[in-house]
Amino acid sequence: MTNRELHDIGSEPRKQKPTPLRSMPKMAQASTQSGSSMNPPPFKNERVFPGIDDPTVRESFPRAISQVRTQLGRTYPLFIDGREVTTQSTLDSVNPANPGEIIGTVHQAGRAEAEMAVSAAERALPTWRNVDPVERAQYLIKAADVTRRRIFEYSAWQVLEEGKQWAQAYNDIAEGIDFLEYYAREMIRLGTPQDMGSYAEESNHYFYQPKGVAVVIAPWNFPFAIGCGMCAAAIVAGNPVVFKPSSQSMVVGHHLVEIFREVGLPAGVFNYLPGPGSAIGDCLIDSPKVSVIAFTGSMGVGLRIIERAGRTPENQASVKHVVCEMGGKNAIILDEKFDEDAAVRDVLYSAFGYQGQKCSACSRLIVHDKAYDRFVPRLVEAAKKLKIGPAEDPGNYMGPVIDQKAQQTILQYVDLATREGKLLYRSEVPKNGYYIPMTIVEGITPANRLAQEEVFGPVLAIMRAKDFEQALDWANSTRFALTGAIFSKNRERVDRTVRDFRVGNLYLNRGCVGALVKVQPFGGFKMSGGGTKAGGPDYLLHFMDPRCVTEQPQR
Questions:
Q1: Helix (H) / strand (E) containing 461
Q2: Model confidence band, residue 39 (pLDDT cutoffs 50, 70, 90)
Q3: What band does 24 get if pLDDT is binned at 50, 70 and 90?
Q4: How far is Cα of residue 310 from the mean position of the Cα atoms in its chain?
Q5: For residues 544 and 234, what is the distance between their CA atoms, to the nearest angstrom?
């Protein structure tokens, strides 16, 4: 007999005020408490980079870079179960603008250390998952305060280790602060049990519990923001974390160790595990002790993680959940009439900001036939005025790509671009360092590889569309669906783009990069990811399981 049949026996259900469940877990009751620490002020985005002419910037940034230079070459251990761990293997992290300059030497985890870290997280789980969610949120808010205090220092590390321009580095740290502040508030909101109403005399409440041990695999291009965001989401939701930073951003990744140690995060809740993916990647993904995997990176690696995580050995207690954010082949459409000055500025920034090393970067510019001849020459002339060199010089618009492997791969695409299209511009670059010329080509159509494959470098393919319909069709012609943009003064076409340009983040009359936490939740679908939206109201749900409790009063 079903519950519905039981209710149907006898009189009609009586509507009454539900009785709060006395046995409700502490996690679900926590945010009903009052007090300023329990109710932080409404979320507000951290200020973005104020500009190189700002007096504080001009004083603080050079000083921070000089101070960081005095700390180069230090050795960084693993951090497992609240203590530092060293290994026989180390790897140098270098400055991509000057590969002879060692940023730091980082101990590398192997299979034994990976298993040690997962076990530490598993031991921390029973206690951490039952910590008041408001208390967990307070750790994140304190971590945001620590990061805010050190924002120029941490930005300087990115300038040297990742080749990020001042603004790019600063905004990456600011976004990490946003993730900490926003997810803290989201957990306080979600930590309140939802009264689902009553049926007959039963009371019903809906709440969340953490999934379990989380593995976070972070990229190098947003080395603080994305790694911090994924870790913060998992931790505040009650999941102890094993954090594997990218091998190209291990020193920046270690900043999370410093921050979480300073705020007193309990041992085992955050474990720092740098190491080669070939040695520890599969071990982490395959572990039956892991319940959720958060990954941001390339499509190839992401799909492999999804495939491996789908295996279920007999000793695995739960179905692994994969939070997967992958690449893009993003397009900006230029209609017949638009603000050309804004388009020149925003297309260049979307295509060549941080050397095009963003999953959201514009790699395809689709220009309406009637605007093509007047706009494209303007764009090329503006590109020729941009300077290329080390990121620590704020006068340089573009710096080096991340490493030699990336340099070699992107140069192959530069060569492909000259074979598939007509070269409009190829800049000069410094001889020392991992530089790629700013490259613009035309004559590309969806049939070309350059219009389909993610390049992840400063290569812009311009496509000449015969009309708006073809432009929209071409914009949707890839496997990816991450970001896109349109510049147009035609309201009907703008509205049509909103409906039919199917990407996770669509921008109208602005560039296609630069999403902000909360106000512009970020993430795509198709081969750009699993439909997750980092920095949005649904994100923490990926790290928790919902539960419903029904109570029948005793007679």
A1: strand 459-465
A2: confident
A3: low
A4: 23
A5: 9
| 36: Cβ contacts below 8 Å, ≥ 6 apart | none
pTM: 0.93
pLDDT computed for residue 18 by the predictor = 45
Q: Which residues are catalytic?
A: 325, 359
357: CB partners within 8 A, 6+ apart: 221, 401, 402, 406, 456, 457
Written as six digits, the tokens of 373 are 């001849």
Distance CA 72, CA 95 (A): 10
The answer to whether the CB of 457 falls within 8 A of the CB of 401 is yes
Q: Phi-psi region for residue 287, left (φ > 0), alpha (ψ -120 to 50) or beta?
A: beta
Please report where in the chains the tokens 């419903």 appear, as a residue: 548
pLDDT tens digits, 203-257: 999 999 999 999 999 999 999 999 999 999 999 999 999 999 999 999 999 999 9
pLDDT in tens, 463-510: 999 999 999 999 999 999 999 999 999 999 999 999 999 999 999 999
Q: For residue 200, what pLDDT is reported?
A: 87
State which amino acid sits at residue 532.
Answer: T
DSSP codes, 100-164: EEEEEEEE---HHHHHHHHHHHHHHHHHHTTS-HHHHHHHHHHHHHHHHHTHHHHHHHHHHHH--
Which pLDDT score, from 0 to 100, does residue 298 have? 95
User: Distance between CA atoms of 445 and 465, rounded to whole angstroms?
Assistant: 9
CB atoms near residue 480 (< 10 Å)? 26
User: What does the alpha-carbon distance between residue 331 and residue 506 come to, in Å, rounded to a whole number?
Assistant: 10
